[in-house]
Design a protein that fits this description.
Elements: H1 2-13, H2 20-50, H3 54-116, H4 120-128, H5 133-208, H6 210-243, H7 256-270, E1 282-285, E2 305-309, E3 315-317, E4 322-330, E5 334-341, E6 344-354, E7 361-362, E8 367-371, E9 373-374, E10 377-386, E11 389-391
Antiparallel strand pairs: 1-2, 2-10, 3-8, 4-5, 4-7, 5-6, 6-8, 6-10, 9-10, 10-11
Length: 398
């Protein structure tokens, strides 16, 4: 599939279209979805051998199906767009051909005139047979211009022929791109069918193993509760320290540290929707309360953040400048790093290794650690809080 898609992109990018933005946007979107599918596929294959959690497999598979449908739809739009461009190019070629034929006809007429008037004596007789001096000059200019017209017409014909050749070459390239896109879309639809078949098998497996799943759910609920309590207690303690004037003044004037926190908080808030992702991947667990996709009356543990599926050992980066306030280890979440950004906090959990320590200053993009693989799942659990209130990270990330 990647070979077909790359061929189509290379051909389409080489063609003149209405604007560079359209081509760049098309390439960016197709590449983004393609990379997302490839990453999800790696996650699914890695989990097959290690993970006992069928829900994780189902979540990844459904994400891949959704991405595959998005890719197929985008490819369909590009095929339609290319088809319209092919039809427009055919009209351009037809018009160019008509103009070429007309120019050839005019040129042939000029050739015949020149042939008829090829005798120099005849030319002179024709010129001096004028009734007056004005007519003599007009006849002289007429005969002189025939030669110039022939040369000019010959140049126009050559240019028109070159234009037709370029148009026909562009048409061939468009047809090649269309064929590549069609082949890619066909391949994607086959992959979708296979994924949907796998999805049905996973749903059937989950329905049979409800008792085992409920045990897993209970364990995950305890782990999530412990994580959320740890984070909430930490944030509450930090907020209490601020309100009591700890490390500041009690005179009503803000200390230099408080001023710095206010500035950092404002900068952080001003970047809502613009923060970089902490890791490259796909969100497979969203913020908030959700029901189980198969046992629709069963609620999943409340998610105070989001889960991002990624590659094993992927680097985790700070989404904003701040200070590392804590590094803890929690069941089910391995190592977690808590970073303060004034009145805001970000939490990076399920880390394999940590490259920072408490009180370290981090800048935007600094590597905090790398993602661990836990029970076959390679996911970063990421939370973002405003004071004591958890936020939906997707609304903050760009």
């Amino acid at each position: 599939m990647r070979r077909f898609l790359c061929t189509a992109l290379i051909v389409l990018m080489a063609l003149p279209v209405s604007g560079q933005t359209t081509k760049a946007g098309m390439q960016k979107k197709l590449t983004k979805v393609q990379n997302e599918i490839a990453e999800l596929d790696r996650q699914i294959k890695a989990n097959e051998a290690k993970s006992s959690d069928a829900l994780a497999q189902l979540t990844l598979t459904r994400k891949k199906i959704a991405a595959g449908k998005e890719l197929a739809a985008e490819l369909g739009r590009q095929i339609d767009s290319t088809g319209r461009r092919i039809e427009a190019k055919k009209k351009d070629i037809a018009q160019a051909s008509d103009r070429y034929d007309m120019m050839l006809g005019a040129y042939e007429m000029l050739i015949r005139r020149a042939y008829v008037n090829r005798d120099t004596k005849m030319w002179l007789t024709y010129i001096f047979a004028g009734k007056d001096l004005g007519q003599v000059f007009r006849r002289y200019n007429y005969l002189r211009n025939i030669s110039g017209d022939m040369r000019a017409q010959a140049r126009d014909i050559r240019d028109q022929k070159a234009l037709m050749e370029r148009e026909m070459s562009a048409l061939d390239s468009l047809k090649e791109a269309s064929e590549a896109l069609l082949a890619t879309r066909s391949s994607e639809l086959k992959a979708l069918q296979a994924d949907e078949k796998s999805e049905k098998a996973m749903v059937a497996k989950l329905k049979k193993g409800k008792a085992d799943y409920q045990k897993q759910l209970a364990r995950k609920q305890k782990e999530a509760d412990a994580l959320n309590k740890s984070i909430r207690d930490f944030v509450a303690k930090q907020s209490a320290g601020k309100s009591s004037g700890k490390k500041g003044t009690t005179t009503g004037k803000s200390s230099p540290r408080s001023q710095a926190d206010i500035k950092l908080s404002n900068e952080f808030a001003g970047n809502k929707g613009k923060l970089p992702w902490p890791v490259q991947g796909t969100i497979v667990g969203q913020f908030g309360q959700h029901n189980h996709p198969v046992y629709t009356n069963v609620k999943l543990p409340f998610n105070n953040g989001c889960n991002i599926a990624t590659s094993a050992g992927a680097p985790v980066k700070a989404v904003f400048a701040g200070t590392v306030k804590n590094v803890v280890v929690l069941p089910g979440y391995n190592q977690c790093v808590l970073v303060q950004h004034g009145d805001y906090y970000t939490f990076y959990c399920k880390l394999k290794d940590v490259r920072v320590k408490t009180d370290d200053k981090v800048a935007l993009g600094d590597v905090i650690g790398s993602v661990d693989t836990i029970s076959g799942e390679t996911q970063l659990h990421f939370q973002l809080w405003s004071g004591t209130t958890p936020q939906d990270p997707e609304k903050w990330l760009r």
